[in-house]
Structure to design on (226 residues):
């Protein structure tokens, strides 16, 4: 199942599609548009794409709520693993900070030896294998903590707005197009407010926020703003 792949050959039932047409905006002459006018069809997967689904050329499948393809995990980040991915980007910096604090013992000891003028002992400690390993591992922990921590920080903007990386590009294009044509401002239909957006990914229980327990709104028909 991975990140949440669209079942191959998937096609929604007509009642599903029609029930989601905006009731307050009745169709002219009671016309019922075909599914092909409402949902995109993927020629590769031979299936319709549910809202927020996109085809990933690396995975070779359409992914529900696709955010991006992560080369480090070897798969996409989508509906089924978005919460776990966000938790991963938070727990890794915490683990790296813990490792960094442990490995700081050697650099601090070396600094004190140099500061006190104990040069002979300083070089003796520095040339030991465990000292060199501790210094290298400390640097690695610091770099990973900063890189993954910056990703975790950036993800909060996406979560607060309920926008995937793919949708950020699409929304920017829609806003630019409407600005040029002087149309009404584009409103992202899946923005449920900051609290609702976070709960759409993590749920309302504190357990699903801190543990990799699968949760998420409907993968096929995401919640719409009122």
């Amino acid at each position: 199942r991975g990140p949440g792949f669209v079942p191959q050959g998937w096609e929604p039932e007509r009642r599903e599609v029609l029930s989601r047409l905006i009731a307050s905006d009745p169709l002219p002459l009671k016309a019922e548009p075909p599914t092909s006018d409402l949902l995109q069809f993927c020629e590769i997967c031979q299936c319709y794409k549910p809202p927020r689904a996109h085809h990933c050329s690396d995975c070779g499948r359409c992914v529900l709520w696709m955010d991006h393809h992560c080369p480090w995990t070897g798969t996409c980040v989508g509906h089924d693993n978005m919460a776990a991915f966000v938790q991963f980007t938070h727990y890794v910096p915490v683990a790296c900070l813990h490792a960094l604090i442990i490995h700081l013992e050697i650099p601090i000891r070396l600094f004190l030896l140099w500061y006190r003028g104990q040069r002979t002992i300083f070089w003796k400690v520095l040339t030991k294998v465990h000292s060199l390993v501790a210094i290298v591992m400390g640097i690695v922990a610091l770099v990973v903590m900063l890189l993954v921590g910056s990703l975790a920080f950036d993800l909060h903007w996406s979560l607060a707005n309920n926008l995937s990386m793919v949708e950020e590009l699409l929304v920017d294009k829609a806003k630019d197009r409407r600005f040029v044509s002087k149309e009404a401002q584009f409103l992202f239909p899946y923005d449920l407010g900051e609290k609702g957006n976070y709960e759409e990914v993590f749920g309302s229980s504190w357990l699903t926020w801190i543990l990799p327990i699968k949760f998420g709104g409907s993968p096929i028909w995401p919640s719409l703003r009122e």
